[in-house]
């Protein structure tokens, strides 16, 4: 990541249960609500909400469980997701639009189109993805607030 900002104004952590499709989107909704309450502009909320939803769905679809943490600082919004899943064998391939390892059950539910990771990358300023096969995946993404052209709540 470009810079470290230790001045954390808000930190929230959420548990994600793998396979819990009925509650899919609940965590990204809570993140969205937190950002609205903090006074962030809709353009920033939208970017983080999309990226957070995609990350949440990846844990629900592919892992036993995971944790999603939101860090709000004066200069950035950062999300960190760690899961206990199968891991990703080829990260470069997984970043390709349309590439998916989703099984039939996931596809029948309308997920698994292979756009999750590319959508996270498109909607954030920075993204780091690491994975260990049969151990899990670590994802971090950031939206830098000082790169935005809108009024921010901490200005």
Secondary structure topology:
Elements (H helix, E strand, L loop, with lengths): L9 E8 L8 H12 L4 H21 E10 L3 E10 L5 H4 L9 H5 L7 H8 L2 E7 L3 E9 L11
TL;DR of this structure?
This protein is of the alpha+beta class and 155 residues long.
Description:
The protein is globular and about 45 Å long. A hairpin with a 3-residue loop joins strand 4 (126-132) and strand 5. The chain is an alpha+beta fold. Strands 1-2-3-5-4 form a 5-stranded antiparallel β-sheet, with helices on one face. It is built from 5 helices and 5 strands.
Spatial ordering of strands, largest sheet: 1-2-3-5-4
User: What multimeric state do the chains show?
Assistant: single chain
Return the string of H and E elements. EHHEEHHHEE
Strand content: 25-35%
Using only CA atoms, what is the Rg? 15 Å
Query: Overall mean pLDDT score?
Result: 91
| Beta-strand segment tally | 5
- Helical element count? 5
Total domains, how many? Answer: 1
Largest sheet: 5 strands, antiparallel
Distance between the termini: 22 Å
Main structural class:
alpha+beta
CATH architecture: 2-Layer Sandwich
Estimate percent helicity: 25-40%
What top-tier CATH class fits best?
Alpha Beta
CATH H level: which superfamily?
Histidine kinase-like ATPase, C-terminal domain
Uncertain spans: none
The geometry reads as globular
Q: Would you tell me which CATH topology applies? A: Heat Shock Protein 90
């Amino acid at each position: 990541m470009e810079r470290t900002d230790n001045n954390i104004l808000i930190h929230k952590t959420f548990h994600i249960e793998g396979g819990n499709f009925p509650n899919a989107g609940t965590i990204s909704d809570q993140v969205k609500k937190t950002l609205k309450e903090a006074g962030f502009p809709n353009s920033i909320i939208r970017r983080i909400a999309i990226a957070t939803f995609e990350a949440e769905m990846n844990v629900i679809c592919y892992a036993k469980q995971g944790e999603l943490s939101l860090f709000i600082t004066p200069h950035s919004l950062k999300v960190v997701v760690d899961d206990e899943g199968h891991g990703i064998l080829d990260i470069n391939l997984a970043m390709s639009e349309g590439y998916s390892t989703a099984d039939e059950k996931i596809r029948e539910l309308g997920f698994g189109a292979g756009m999750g990771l590319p959508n996270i990358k498109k909607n954030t300023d920075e993204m780091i993805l690491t994975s260990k096969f049969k151990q899990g995946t670590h994802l971090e993404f950031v939206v830098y607030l000082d790169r935005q052209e809108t009024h921010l709540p901490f200005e």
